[in-house]
Amino acid sequence: MAGLDLARIPAHVAVVMDGNGRWAQQRGLKRTDGHAAGEEALFDTVDGALDIGLKWLTVFAFSTENWRRPLDEVRYLMGFNERLLLNRRDDLNRRGVRVRFIGRRHGRVPGRVRKRIDETEALTQGNRRMTLTFAFNYGGRAELVDAARSIAKSVADGSLKPDKIDDRVLARHLYAPDMPDPDLLVRTSGEFRISNFLLWQLAYSELVFTDVLWPDFRQANLFEAIAEFQNRNRRFGSV
Ligand code: IPE
Ligand code: IPE
Ligand code: MG
User: Fold this and answer.
1) What architecture is domain 9-139+182-230?
2) Domain boundaries, the chain
């Protein structure tokens, strides 16, 4: 934690957990072994986040574009996320973590995964120490499309006038209206892109990129990214 100002911890850190496939490839393993190795990275990061008092942590677990991957990898990721919830939810619950999901729950997500998601959210909904949000079957464009549909319905039923639509109305129609915008986005594995994550919410986030592949990421890497964030000068368009 050296170099971290504990009085200025960001409210919300979002993470694109990337590089599992390359991590496995470098070791002559299957891509899915890389996903498995990412579990320790995630829970070490969660431990660190709890230690420094982070209130909101959001992780990109499966994108609306990840369905394009080979069927066996997609199947693995569905089962992996289901097991992860089963194995970890009691511990997360004991430690005061509220677990939530953003993304399209229906459509292609298998029913048993959806069931675990619903159960885990119900189990942990009263917790307030930290909110851990999984972006799962999530796409930033899909979220904005869903918001547009929902707004259009309110206009059609007369409960919303078109000229009343502003930033706040749109934000209220996102998947998690109470979630503050991320102060900091971290992406691992040396890729410099957003890949359809939180398009609306990242408008003024500080971006930190690291070459570390996700399975090697640990809480020390989170603290480094936050230390870098603390050295930035955020202006929000002002001077
Ligand atoms: C991130 O690792 C995990 C998911 C997208 C589910 P990748 O699987 O994208 O790993 P690389 O980018 O191919 O190395
Ligand atoms: C973004 O990573 C999605 C997740 C981490 C779940 P990808 O590996 O899918 O992104 P691209 O394809 O490199 O842009
Ligand atoms: Mg990737």
Assistant:
1) 3-Layer(aba) Sandwich (3.40)
2) 9-139+182-230
Amino acid at 105: R
Neighbouring-strand partners of residue 58: 14, 133
**64-113: pLDDT as tens digits:** 999 999 999 999 999 999 999 999 999 999 999 999 999 999 889 999 99
Mutate to test the pocket of ligand 2, among 39, 66, 73, 212 (most ligand atoms within 8 A of CB): 66
Q: Rounded to whole angstroms, what are the CA distances from 129 to 52, 54, 97, 145, 169? A: 11, 8, 6, 31, 28
Catalytic one of 44, 66, 146, 181 = 66
Calculate how far, in angstroms, residue 80's C-alpha sits from the geometric centre of ligand 2: 17
Length of the chain as a residue count = 239
